[in-house]
Amino acid sequence: MVNEASGNAASDRRQRTRHDATHAAALGTANLNPFGDLHTLQHLSARFARGLRGVFEPILRRATRSWAEPLSVMRFADYVAERPKGLTAWLPLAMNPAAGNAMLVIDGRFTLELLDLYFGGLGEAPNPLPGEFSASAEALVERLGRTIVESLSIAWEPVSRLEFTPGRVEINPAMLSDFDGDDAVIVTRFGIAPGTDKPVFVDLVYPVAALKPIGPSLNAKVHGRTAEPEPRWRGGLTRAAMSVRFPVRSVLAEPVMSLGALMELKEGDVIPISFGQHVPIMVGAHRLGTGVVGTQNGRAAICIHQLESFEEEDLHA
Fold first, then answer.
1. Three-class secondary structure assignment of 53-111
2. Chain segment 206-215, per-residue pLDDT in tens
3. Alpha helices, DSSP H, located in 104-178
């Protein structure tokens, strides 16, 4: 359940002092969080975390666990100050139709380990770390960003149809023109743990100002399952799907001839064929079953002898 313990061992969590998501207003202090308990955003983060496995597992080449950490709300300058010093990838994600950028933040060491794995290595980062990313490392982060935003848009669908577009990688947060040190941000942190290794953490940072236009949606209840479709709409969709036409064909024989024999063919020659009692019946590239060739009402016809059993995966092949 959202906002309960994720079930991960305490050692999986980054030890850090976190601000509570709900901030009580105090005299002379600005309220950083206008969205209440952020239960809905925590729910969306949990949905998104499930999709992160498909992003990182192909590169890590190991079974990977992923989960969402509790949210925190803070000033952007405080977030930058609490991050470990050293090389970090800051990737802006333009939010449309919301005005503003979210931010994908990945540790530099993890980025370079992924780069080494991507090119067939063992996942080793240089020691010490370089002061900046190579062009190939930046391209990898941007590639990850393009994959991540697909899962991110899907996770946001119950609340708002947001589209995210990755920008250019920065290594210095001071170069992020859309983020001021005093801006309030919501930090969503995700744990990535390949195999039995210690987890690494990837952050998504949302500016509070960019989310204000969809504030009412963030305060609404999000259901775990999509509501049942309206019966008339579903009936119309079913009728439309049932009227789709497919070419049905049968292959009586497929004789094989050498190129020399083909070159010697002339009008009047006979190509011998042979086929068994039952011939295949095809729908597209799939075998529907077998039948017996005959006639009906003066036309050639096939009487179905046996239908193949279909698995659901076959229908999507």
1. HHHHHHHHCCCEEEEECCCEEEEHHHHHHHCCCCCEEEEEEEEECCCCEEEEEEEHHHH
2. 998 888 888 7
3. 108-118, 135-156
**Could you give the dihedral angle defined by the CA atoms of residues 23, 27, 28 and 30, in that order, rounded to the nearest 10 degrees?**
20
> Which pTM was predicted?
0.60
For residue 188 the two structure tokens come to 């969503």
Question: What is the distance between the alpha carbons of residues 114 and 104, in angstroms, rounded to a whole number?
Answer: 16
Among 215, 213, 179, 197, CA closest to 66: 197
Q: In what order do the strands lie in the sheet with 299-307?
A: 248-250, 279-283, 286-296, 299-307
CA distances (Å), origin 73, targets 19, 90, 102, 207, 232: 6, 18, 14, 10, 44
- Over the stretch 197-207, which tens digit does the pLDDT of each residue have? 899 999 999 99
Distance CA 19, CA 16 (A): 10
Amino acid occupying residue 201: F
Q: How far apart are CA 22 and CA 42, in angstroms?
A: 12
Residue 118 burial class via C-beta count within 10 angstroms: exposed 0-12, middle 13-18, buried 19 and up: middle
Q: Is 216 exposed, middle or buried, given 0-12, 13-18 or 19+ CB atoms closer than 10 A?
A: exposed
